[in-house]
Amino acid sequence: MSSSPGMLHPELLAQDGTDSIYRHGRRLDHAEATSKPLRVKREPQPRGAKIHGNRPVDQAEAAARFIAAPEHEKMHDERLWDLRQKRDREMHGIPEWEELRSLASAIKEHTLTHLDEYLDQFEANARSNGVHMHWARDAAEHNRIVHAILNDHGAKSLIKSKSMLTEECGFRHYMAAVGIDVIETDLGERIQQLDNEDPSHVVVPAVHKLRTDVAQVFSKTIGTDPDNSDVHYLAEAQREATRPLILAADAGMTGCNFAVAETGSVVVCTNEGNADLSANVPKLHIASIGIEKIIPRFEDLAVFVRLLSRSALGSPITQYTSHFRGPREDGEMHFVLVDNGRSERLGLAEFWTSLKCIRCGACMNTCPVYRRSGGLSYGATYSGPIGLIIDPTFNARKYSNLPFASTLNGSCSNVCPVKINIHEQIYAWRRELVKQHEVPFVKKAAMKAAGELLSRPVAYRAAIAAADIALAHLPRFVIYNGLNAWGKHRELPRPPKQTFHSWYHANRGDKR
Amino acid sequence: MRIGLFIPCYIDAFFPEVGIATLELLERFGHEVVYPRDQTCCGQPMANSGFNADCAATEALFVRNFSGFDYVVAPSGSCVHHVRANFDAVEQTAEVKEVRARTYEIVEFLHDIQKADAFPWAKFPHRVGLHNSCSTLRALKHAAPSELHEAFFSKPMDLLSKVEGIEFVKPSRPDECCGFGGTFSVFEEVVSTKMGYDKVSDHARAGAEYIVSADTSCLMHQQGCAERIGVPMKFIHIAEILNGASA
């Protein structure tokens, strides 16, 4: 039952347009004795990019909606900038920081150029530790393999820790379709799961949400008070709701931060200890591993562990660094090694070093565009600078706009703990997409015209003069209109009395 | 020395005073400065948008204009970065390579080549916020960027410190990009202008009367942003201050 929205006081209307005078199945009374002060209108959470099949994602459009929600944009920018500053402080505490970065980059380069050997070594060692090994060519095969393992054990529920690889594989959607309950155990990822929204950041997946947004999600899904956005209350409520599911789960799943070839073991880094819950509570543990996660030796791990959390969150180390080497007694352990486009990427001369990425998110935290756009504006599994150079390898058309969502400022490359030249790859992707004809015709025509004009001095001089005269004499509404992107949100420079060219001619005319 | 003066297209059209200051400054140090009349642009707008092939003719023209000088000097970090790092649509002959290697941005020319140690003609009794553009900071390495663990240095600050009366303010995010980004400024204009608003507000809060930079394109964008949101701020190119601009 619903009443006409026009009959309700606007403050009582729910943000999603549903009739909020019914709450908890009970009509809210307006009698004086029970009335509460009207709530200050909550800024609705801006949603991510609109996805239209294979059509290019319009990042700029989604970013504009994010900026149009100033509370969210400000919180997001400041929260991530704070992480960047904490990262800087940690960096300054390590005199050999730049050496560490070079070392990490060199280890990754060595591993990626000998990947077949190290994968074989990893597989052999894991097998001898009693782990069942699987190889998945792509996302679909990964999902089928995991499904088959679960079926073999009659498992109907799965607890899992955070994994970007499973996001890449659309794993949650697949499992929902085959009737297996997936419960995310990372708090941020659980928030996103309950809100049916993708993670917006590789490390802090719900960073784009205000706590009031979380209160709304939890009130609808686990029955908390929608007006109580106290973080302790919300975290406790989630813990109470999720722990029984964890205890009752049939199987557990983790991702993998590092797969050590020498020992055949998998290392997972978390701050909530949720990988340990996912791996140790049920008898069955499945780990999904991107093939680029391999490092050769156990001692190499020290280099990456020192860099990872410092770069990600500005903390010296994650609360938990968990090593999984073999199944427990009466249990089973399965490793699924996933390619999903990685071998192909390894063959791209300009872009293969993107496989060095350890998913710390430092490039996102420092990116001024990302901080003001929100991760969901990219409409892809990977957002921010690293997303700009990885996403087009999955689908050049769909993600053709992404490499243009950058000022090429280069801060991302400087914070990258494995020294990926991210901003240079963004630049290279622009060239590549033009070569592949994945840029709009209007842009193409404009650039061709610019190229022709700028290579003809006489025509160029005439154009400059005409533009100056036009700017000086046209009324404001002609210059500042919807078609002129420069002038929508900023003023144009005022044309001077004369150009440098004509000044030089008038004042130094004799010189050639 | 015989120097070819490269005045990028938007400086020519909108900020002639920056070109004049650069010319006069180089002349103060006794150089023969020549402005080749047929110059237009370095090709950066097309190249940054991915359209490298469309730059070839513009780059060839650039080389015709600037071949044979001891140095080519420009008051624009991003243009110089393009010439030096990405100017590869035109065939890389010995002449092209020579021109690319001899092209300098004005601050690095004065600091590294000229080794200028005094600007006795310059006085600037104002509080300024230094905006290191991303091209000058991270590509041309004008200064130590905050992301890297390295000792502090700043070429523009070295030069400006020799100007009588100048006072620097410290914005909270000194290395943050202002959002210009070439064609980014129109293709992603909402994000671009939001970054610009934040940048000028940061400098205003720090107490700056002027934002000074070696990149006029950043200043053009920031000025447009400041005027739109009503932040009272003045903008000036570093060459103008070093050449003795009074205000």
Give the helix level of chain A as a range of percent: 40-55%
| Strand order in space, largest sheet of chain A | 3-12-9-6-4-5
Q: Look at the helices and sheets of chain B and give the structural class.
A: alpha/beta
| Rounded average pLDDT of chain B | 96
Question: Helices and strands in order, then pairings?
Answer:
The complex is a heterodimer of chains A (512) and B (247).
Chain A lengths: L21 E2 L2 E2 L31 H9 L2 H23 L4 H16 L2 H14 L3 E5 L2 H14 L4 E4 L3 H5 L2 H7 L3 E4 L2 H8 L16 H11 L9 H18 L2 E4 L3 E3 L4 E6 L3 H7 L3 E7 L3 E2 L4 H13 L7 E5 L7 E7 L3 H5 L15 H5 L1 H6 L10 H11 L16 H5 L6 H14 L5 H14 L2 H17 L2 H4 L5 H4 L11 H8 L5
Parallel strand pairs in A: 3-12, 4-5, 4-6, 6-9, 7-10, 9-12
Antiparallel strand pairs in A: 1-2, 7-8, 8-11
Helix pairs in contact in A: 3-12, 16-18
Chain B lengths: L1 E4 L3 H6 L1 H13 L3 E3 L9 H5 L7 H11 L4 E4 L2 H10 L7 H8 L1 E3 H8 L13 E5 L2 H6 L15 H6 L6 E2 L15 H4 L1 H17 L4 E4 L2 H14 L4 E4 H5 L5
Parallel strand pairs in B: 1-2, 1-3, 3-4, 5-6, 5-7, 7-8
Key features of this structure:
heterodimer; A: 512 residues; alpha/beta; Rossmann fold; 6-stranded parallel sheet; 4-stranded mixed sheet; 23 helices; globular; disordered N terminus; B: 247 residues; 2 domains; 4-stranded parallel sheet; 13 helices; 8 strands
Description of the molecule:
- The complex is a heterodimer of chains A (512) and B (247).
- With 512 residues, chain A is α/β, with parallel strands linked by helices.
- Among the domains of chain A are: 94-344, NagB/RpiA/CoA transferase-like (Rossmann fold, 3-Layer(aba) Sandwich), CATH 3.40.50.10420; 446-507, no CATH class.
- Chain A has helices at residues 59-67, 70-92, 97-112, 115-128, 139-152, 164-168, 171-177, 187-194, 211-221, 231-248, 274-280, 300-312, 342-346, 362-366, 368-373, 384-394, 411-415, 422-435, 441-454, 457-473, 476-479, 485-488, 500-507, and strands at 22-23, 26-27, 132-136, 157-160, 181-184, 251-254, 258-260, 265-270, 284-290, 294-295, 320-324, 332-338.
- In chain A, a hairpin with a 4-residue loop joins strand 7 (258-260) and strand 8.
- In chain A, helix 3 crosses helix 12 (300-312) and helix 16 (384-394) packs parallel to helix 18.
- Chain A is globular.
- With 247 residues, chain B is α/β, with parallel strands linked by helices.
- In chain B, helix 11 packs across helix 12.
- Chain B is globular and about 50 Å long.
- Chain B starts with a strand and ends in a 5-residue tail after the last helix.
- The mean pLDDT of chain B is 96.
- The interface between A and B is large, with 77 and 73 residues.
